[in-house]
Amino acid sequence: DVELQEIQRLEGHMDRVWGLAWNPVYPMLASCSGDKTVRVWQQNPGKKTDSWECKAILEDTHTRTVRSCAWSPCGKLLATASFDATTAIWKNVGDDFECVSSLEGHENEVKSVSWNSSGSLLATCGRDKSVWIWEVQPGNEFECASVLQGHTQDVKMVQWHPFVDVLVSVSYDNSIKIWAEDGDSDDWHCVQTLNQSSSGHSSTVWALSFNSAGDRMVTCSDDLTLKIWDTSESPTETSSDGYSPWRHLCTISGYHDRTIFSVHWSRDGVIASGAADDAIRLFVESKNDLVDGPSYKMLLKKEKAHNMDVNSVQWNPKETGVLASASDDVTIKIWKLASVS
Amino acid sequence: MVSGLINANPTVYERKERRVRSAPADADEYAVEHIDAQEIFDILCCGSRIPYVFIICFLSMTWVLKTTVHAFLSVISITISNHVRDIKDPEHPYSLEELKVVTEDAIDVDDEQSHVRVTFTPTVEHCSMATVIGLCIRVKLMRSLPSRYKVDIRLAPGSHATEAAVNKQLNDKERIAAALENPNLLDMVDDCLAPTFA
């Protein structure tokens, strides 16, 4: 038996906390909020409890809600996407963070930002229905490489594949789109759309996450389900006969009764979901029943994880079993998945 | 100027007699606050005069103010609708109660589960104010109810031409949050929610 133990509660934001990002290299956690600020929390190694403390408040740059944040793979740059239509790039200089660049181009709210695996590309998306790909140039310059149109409603989240330069976007139009670069023309285009006719979602898709091997993806939706997708084939292998390289594997339904806002797949295969019912749920693949293909079972449900909606759940990439969650109740919580005898 | 009312002759209903609330005998300030449909209804439907801002919104249908209102609406992701009870119909000097846009029967409260669902009925099928009415209902409840409550706002089934789209928008909290950061829209909502002293 396992349980999710609350290790620490991080307080300081003045409005709902929308997003979280663990630094992949340094012991830091970034959080962003409706209070227009970003906070960087640092683990204090001197103390027994490994307590997290607020190290920096990134303010006076974004003029509206900061919806999403993401660390570059090297851990030195933090990108923050805001409803003010800009994406800011922050550099860790000594003990402080300095805004070194501001990416403008979206017509209105930017809702998500993601770095590719090498840190050479950045993707953003927003209410203007577009997905932008930015090339990282020397000297903290970012050049727009492509503006991708295709979604018919606002785009909620973008996320790069963990190894290859394939981008996934999810939207209020209920669809999931996969974008890749055409080898010959350097043009980005949509190589596949996963919608209701491909066993996809029937309402807004809020988030997605890949497993550590990159051969599966999970998406979560306002339709109260999580869906697992097989992403082991190269998505650019599409042909005119309608072959779909990425395909639906299974649907996890019957567990959530309000919108699922966040989903994250841990390195060791545990899927965490955060929803509008204030609960955090964990799922693992069920090895018992492989007759009808893979299936997933709920490992545990942490009721009242927060006092209000859970907007983000993120596993610590370095410390196994450590999860962070962010909520409308303005707090962030650090959890530890522990076995109980 | 020719009247541009979307619904020039709405049916106006009697306001319902309120049952008298008895003061709880064991009033304990630390007790969990229990909420029922009547209370939600009271929160939503109190005033009775159409606020100026709703006249503006309504007149958006006419050429006179079309550009002004378009400037308003182009910046927001939300179209427009009514509020709940302290809320007036954008078109008429009647409260939502008198127009039966919101009735007590259409408010479901599950106090134990901390869940409130308000179903509202625009006076006409193509009411362009439907989203704003719904937004005002949501903001009013957000500000009035303890934060533990989950609120769902829905159009009455079959009451509106774009029912599904309006429902989806009204229950997307990210879009609501973004809309409420728009100062013009927030002012409008605040005006609609301001108590009227008739």
UniProtKB/TrEMBL annotation, chain B:
Keywords: Chromosome partition
Keyword NADP: no
Record family assignment: Belongs to the MIP18 family.
MIP18 family-like domain segment(s): 83-148
UniProt record, GO biological process: chromosome segregation; protein maturation
Protein name (database record): Protein AE7 isoform X1
Coiled coil: none
Pfam families: FeS_assembly_P
Superkingdom assignment: Eukaryota
Signal peptide limits: none
